[in-house]
Amino acid sequence: MSFRCSVPKCTNSNKDGYCCVTFAQDPELRRKWIDAVGIADWEPSKTAVLCEVSYWAHSAEKSATRALAVIGIFF
């Protein structure tokens, strides 16, 4: 199955070889990700993803845990 990045103007997909991640499950972190996408009154579907180009994953503890990742760079 092919997944396209949810960020406006981004056409990257896993089919094109980009790593894609689903939105965080933690409600507070998920809200930060949604706000960072920048689409007013939008809620991602269960299959909505972000590509590796559209985000910069990091945490305060420099953890590699994806669940702690925070969106940093968008188009």
From TrEMBL:
UniProt KW Nucleotide-binding keyword: no
Gene Ontology molecular function terms on file: DNA binding; zinc ion binding
InterPro entries: THAP_Znf
Keyword tags: DNA-binding, Metal-binding, Zinc, Zinc-finger
Domain (THAP-type): residue spans on this chain: 1-74
Protein name from the UniProt record: THAP-type domain-containing protein
Organism: Cyphomyrmex costatus
